[in-house]
Amino acid sequence: MKNISYSENITNKIMIEFSRTIQLFGLTSLEARLYAYLFLTNEARTLDEMGEALGKSKTAISTNIRSLLDLNLVTQVWKKGVRKDLYAANNQLFKAFMNFYLNKWIDATYHQKEALEETSKMIEQAKKDGAGNLTEFANLELGMHEILEFHEELEGMFKKMKQD
Amino acid sequence: MKNISYSENITNKIMIEFSRTIQLFGLTSLEARLYAYLFLTNEARTLDEMGEALGKSKTAISTNIRSLLDLNLVTQVWKKGVRKDLYAANNQLFKAFMNFYLNKWIDATYHQKEALEETSKMIEQAKKDGAGNLTEFANLELGMHEILEFHEELEGMFKKMKQD
DNA sequence: TTTTACGTACAGAATAAACTGTACGTAAAA
DNA sequence: TTTTACGTACAGTTTATTCTGTACGTAAAA
């Protein structure tokens, strides 16, 4: 059995708790643990180091670090003389997470609103063509209207939050 | 091949789009489709009806409707003469979803904050016991402080949102 | 009371997600 | 130029999640 220092033990405990919170933002378990590890040790790390520390394959680290990079939660760091890629946690916790999270929502609601508006046109067309029961269409249009409104409210709310 | 009406086809399209949005709130695919179905058809339904409509087993419907019930997204409806349980979508979209979502976050951040504070005490204790490297502890405490702050900011934000 | 129909617990099957190891293209080191 | 070491694509495996069918307790109907 490996001798694990007291502080390592505590670090572990914190990592587990912290990464649980991060998962609420929609990160997978490994993404979350990776971020927590980088944040807590507060140093730029190589893929190998992270794999070693979390007991995962280099491949797994590579793909998951890439996600974090895309979300701007992690930055690639350059250090002369070091050949391997180095990654560090963006350590402005609140700002970094809010940013990526709000963007995610704004993006998603926007796109879905578009898709729904497209479908809205199909209803119009179908009505013109007389291709079905009229009350059925009326009912559909009503629901559609509420759903679109819902998307607008969501998008509006998140956009407003982004400004603060 | 079953003859599918034009309006049924459109309904399906909307359901798929809408349920995609709902999944952003953390609902599973079936939970989302169930809600979308109930919302769009705008009628109280039995387990059998829903299973039939979505092509899923009664058991699956039962467990998933129960989740929606717990989240207050769906209500059980009573209709005299009808023996089967009836369920209807809570149709105040924005209000219903915001409510359950904010509660989820507030809950989670609160509990994790508590757990982290517990661990904070462990660091104190370890420092007293001289059970490790001092600078290591200082570093840990720094990270811990930022993480706790992060949790407070999150909790505060969501609580504030709830008031509006 | 007996029979029938309902909803759900639970074990196992199907599907999806996460992860590993190998293999390869690329760029730094020799 | 040749050799070495790096990061990632990809196929296959492992693990986790979702779903089904059967079986059972319960309450309404007969």
UniProtKB/TrEMBL annotation, chains A, B:
Gene Ontology molecular function terms on file: DNA binding
Keyword Zinc-finger part of the UniProt annotation: no
Domain Transcription regulator TrmB N-terminal: 24-88
UniProt keyword Cell division present: no
Keywords, ordered alphabetically: DNA-binding, Transcription, Transcription regulation
Pfam families for this protein: TrmB
Family from the record: Belongs to the GbsR family.
PANTHER family for the chain: HTH-TYPE TRANSCRIPTIONAL REGULATOR MJ1563-RELATED
Identification of the protein by name: HTH-type transcriptional regulator
Species: Perspicuibacillus lycopersici
